[in-house]
Amino acid sequence: MRHGQGMSVEARGPDVAFPGYADHGMSRAALLFEAERQSFFLWAPVCLGAGIAAYFALPMEPALIVAFAPLALAVILRLTVRSGTLAATLMMALVLIGAGFGIAKLRVEAVRAPVLTKALHSVEVSGTVTMVEAKLPRGQRLTIANPKIANLAAADTPAVVRIRTMSSKTRAAPGDKIRIKANLSPPAKPALPGGFDYARTAWFESVGGVGYAFAAPTIEGHLDPNSIVQWYRRSIENIRQAIAARIRAALPGETGEIALALITGERGGISAETNNAFKNSGLFHILSISGLHMVIAAGAVFFSIRLILAAIPRVALTMPIKKIAAALGIISAVAYLAISGGQFATVRSALMIFIIFGAMLIDRPALALRNVALAAILILLAYPESLLDAGFQMSFAAVTALIASHEFLSSLFNREQKPHPVMRVVVFFGEIIASTLIASVAVAPFAAYNFHQSQQYAVLANMIAIPICNLIVMPAALVAMVLMPFGLEWLGLKLMGWGIEGMTWCANEVGALPGAVGHIPAIPELAFVLMLTGGIWFLLWQTRIRLLGVALVGAGLLVAPWMPRPDVLVGQKGLLVAVRDDSGKLDAMPGKGTKYDLDRWLEYDGDSRTARDAKTGEGFTCDAVGCIAHVKGATVAVARHPAAVTDDCLNADVLVLDTPKPGNCAVPRTVVDVFDRWRNGAYALYVDRGNDSPEPKIRLETVAAHRGERPWSETPERKQVVLPKPRILQAPPPPAGAPAAEPARTAEAEPETRTSADVDPGEGAELEAEDLTEPDAESGR
Predict the structure, then answer these.
(1) What is the DSSP string of 28-96?
(2) Residue 520: CB partners within 8 Å, gap ≥ 6?
(3) pLDDT at residue 710 in the model
(4) Do the beta carbons of residue 477 and residue 494 sit within 8 Å?
């Protein structure tokens, strides 16, 4: 044994721990961190992510040179300290934080493309289709690259637009050059301050406009590929379309659509009811191609090839069959990635598979936290915006927790002895239960923060569905793909269909159980950060200092319930206004085209009611010209007609207007007019009546304030339009003995003085049927 091997850090002394600190006496904290030296690499993606998070948290966009200033400063500091010291380790962490900050800025500039600044109604759009997604109950969603939009300058034209067609006659395919008349609008802003920002997601996909069309597109030709990349994309899309046709022929109905989702990643044909059943039961991860499917598919190839080669003695004894199987596993993962459409979640899963099999090729452990850290680093370097993606967060949280638990349990139990066949079955289901519990705990903070929900019976559902998926569905899918070139894919697809029906039955039954879904109100960012930091601290360190993470998680849980709830919410278009009633629930004014925003408000509030149930209007007193509500002693007025403005300006504490604010409306403490909503988006108002003042104090939060001045949140400058001051019509004094005159009304401004198409304060076209606009707005989730 070499000198010093097996001795503790304390026994060896500080001279070998951190050179340069021995002369000054190393603190006990430094000694503890020295014992964790092997874990330092695991913190690299954490530091990188901290820098990316700091960039996205800025209230305004930094210049490129400013974005790289932290990195330059950190490098200088690192060069001033001796390598191998604690200070050098801390400086390297600062370098990674600075690198994350700068990389995020570079990514924002790399994808910069024009974004529509206003809604365009019935405009002609032409371009090349790059992606086609089937949508229920009819039509498709078309992704169109390099579009040309009538009456829009090329410099203002987005690089990519997405259009939902409502015609069942749509037959567009990738590579088609089409022309279509559509209504377009900018990507949707958050429905409330602090809500999900689809416009930011669209920015990184270079999508500058979304919309809809009722007529089918006119196909004018097909793009001739003039590069290898275009040829590859066209060929892959043609293969995907051919696979989809074969699957639908063998498995008609929704069973075939689920099979299509598992093989090609196309989920548009799955009904909302089925999606909700899988969500409520905790099985939604099965419908999205993720690490589970990639591991099963590539793992099946790996074990099949290895089994076949092991059955040939000459090959088994003379060739590295494990490495051969790993190489073929990588190839199968690449093929699966290609036919699945290359969605980001699939790319993330494929990268993890590449690293696992790559570790086998170089004789390194396949399941190790270092491999997870390496995958996270590569993804954050290429797609720094993925840090904000709920899928990325939950995926790495679950994988990190599972592998950390695997490493810990492997050190406790001896797996060298082969268990009894009965015990193998027990261990199989025990591992499913344990992995589900571990993953559920790991992703719980992310589910609460992003989706405000928890699935109470996820363990039960996964214990039934995961064996079906692992042993029947995905192996059958692999068999179907192997047999497809011979026209025999129906053999595998029939078996796959039976498995899918079993999983769907499980999702419907478990999702319908009483209390299957827990609704969680929004939690403060501080609580989320504390729980996230505590979880990472606990999983990555190996010594007793990891227990500090438990304390941080506990602190986060204590802070979580202290999120203030808005007393009044005002939607961006002004059609939706909700107040909090005496029971603590939101009550909204009835109105068309408000379902999507109200659903988001209820989710944020942890309210299980539907938008229809919440739009009772019981908290408002309404007449023909507007509505009034009372919240904590404050009067909230919603003026729907100029005739109501005069009284509301005199009596309301909060006034919501569909018109510009009159110049003589000075009484209300808070006025939200049409231009306020255009500029600031949705409003959240907090009413506080203190004991020291009889007057209510009103605090405002807006979407614009939460988003800051970033490239995806830029508000176009409004044209200067002179708006006449509304006049109060004064009737002449009535003659003596005449009946009293009616109350004075506010004269309605002339039509041309109100907002028009070129100064439209509202954003986005509103479909008459609410459910037609929601899929596009929600797709970024």
Answers:
(1) HHHHHHHHTGGGGGGGHHHHHHHHHHHHHH-SBPPPHHHHTHHHHHHHHHHHTS-TTSHHHHHHHHHHH
(2) 447, 448, 452, 453, 454, 606
(3) 94
(4) no
- Amino acid occupying residue 560: A
Distances (CA, A) of 480 to 262, 293, 700: 12, 15, 57
Q: How far apart are CA 144 and CA 154, in angstroms?
A: 15
Q: Which of 121, 244, 279, 110 is nearest to 174 (CA)?
A: 244
Pairing of strands 160-165, 207-213: parallel
CA 687 to chain centre: 31
Total Cβ atoms within 10 A of residue 545: 15
- Residues with Cβ within 8 Å of 543's Cβ and at least 6 positions away in sequence, in order, are 32, 35, 36
- Quick check: helix, strand or coil at residue 249? helix
Q: Are 462 and 436 in contact (CB under 8 A)?
A: yes
Beta strands in 577-678 (DSSP E): 577-580, 586-588, 621-623, 626-631, 634-639, 654-657, 670-672
CA dist 406 and 424 (Å) reads 17
Integer-rounded Cα Rg, in Å, for the chain is 30
Cβ 368 vs Cβ 359: under 8 Å: yes
Please count the residues of the chain: 781
Q: What is the dihedral of CA 356, 359, 364, 365, to 10 degrees?
A: 0
Q: What is the pLDDT of residues 441-481, one digit of tens each?
A: 898 899 899 999 888 898 889 889 988 988 899 889 989 99
Mean of pLDDT values over 408-436: 73
Long-range (24+ apart) CB contacts under 8 A made by 408-412 are: none
Q: For residues 77 and 60, what is the distance between their CA atoms, to the nearest angstrom? A: 27
Please classify residue 375 by burial: count the beta carbons closer than 10 Å to its beta carbon, then call 0-12 exposed, 13-18 middle and 19+ buried. Answer: buried
**CA-CA distances (angstroms) from residue 163 to 117, 223, 602, 647?**
17, 19, 28, 44
Is the distance from CB of 268 to CB of 134 less than 8 angstroms? yes
